[in-house]
Structures are given as structure tokens and as C-alpha cells.
């Protein structure tokens, strides 16, 4: 059941059992002058019931030379296999995070402006 936690949000909406949903994520991407560095920040805001977070580090038995992303670290919950916060750091230097809602609404806003 813990693995379905992200799906329960959608199911609650589908069946009209929506509680006041104050949880959301925010992210920031900032490029330093002269492209010297890239700063990335992510925050997940939820209720107290979601406060029991832990940092997980998965190291896979891959050859480092062939697969640079042989390990990942992410915030998660006890008993969960994945990051429900959708913020993952890989040893390859890749950062994975999701802010779909903002991008979707920004896209809709741009389309609305173009119609005028």
C-alpha cells in the first residue's frame, strides 16, 4: 500500500474525496554567471503526517566506468522503494525532479496570452 501513496492523491480526486490538499513541491534552477555552475533546490511541503522522511542511497552493482549513474540518493519514507518527492541525485551528476503542475499551468497561461 505504501507504494501506491502517490496514486491515492489521484484516486481521491477521481472519487470526490479530496481533502484540503496543501501539499506541493517547489523547485529552483539557477545558472551562475558565465555558466560556471548550476544551483538546484527542491522542497516538498506536506502535512505533519508526511513528516517521517529519510534519505535513501541505492548503490547498484554496475561498473562505474560503463554506467556513471551507478548510485542514486533521494528523500523517501520508511517502507517506500521510491522517492514520492520526485527529487533524485545520481552519481553521474544528473538531477531528476518534477514540477509538472507549474509547467502545465504556465503553458496554459502562455497559450491564453497568445489567443488575445
UniProtKB/TrEMBL annotation:
Kindly report, in one word, the top-level EC class recorded for this enzyme: hydrolase
| A GO CC annotation given for this chain | extracellular region
Swiss-Prot/TrEMBL keywords: Glycoprotein, Hydrolase, Lipid degradation, Lipid metabolism, Membrane, Signal, Transmembrane, Transmembrane helix
Enzyme nomenclature, EC number: 3.1.1.-
Entries under Pfam families matching the protein: Phospholip_B
Residue stretches spanning the membrane? 87-107
A GO BP term, please?
phospholipid catabolic process
GO terms of molecular function: phospholipase activity
Name the protein family: Belongs to the phospholipase B-like family.
Q: What does this protein do?
A: Putative phospholipase.
Q: What is this protein identified as?
A: Phospholipase B-like
* Species of origin: Brugia timori
Provide the taxonomic classification.
Eukaryota, Metazoa, Ecdysozoa, Nematoda, Chromadorea
Amino acid at each position: 500500500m505504501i507504494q501506491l501513496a502517490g496514486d491515492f492523491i489521484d484516486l481521491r480526486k477521481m472519487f470526490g474525496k479530496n481533502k484540503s490538499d496543501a501539499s506541493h513541491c517547489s523547485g529552483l534552477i539557477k545558472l551562475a554567471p558565465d555558466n560556471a555552475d548550476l544551483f538546484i533546490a527542491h522542497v516538498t511541503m506536506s502535512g505533519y503526517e508526511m513528516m517521517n522522511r529519510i534519505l535513501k542511497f541505492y548503490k547498484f552493482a554496475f561498473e562505474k566506468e560503463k554506467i556513471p549513474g551507478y548510485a542514486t540518493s533521494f528523500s523517501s519514507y520508511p517502507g517506500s522503494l521510491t522517492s514520492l518527492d520526485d527529487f533524485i541525485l545520481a552519481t553521474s551528476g544528473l538531477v531528476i525532479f518534477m514540477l509538472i503542475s507549474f509547467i502545465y499551468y504556465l503553458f496554459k497561461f502562455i497559450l491564453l496570452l497568445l489567443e488575445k
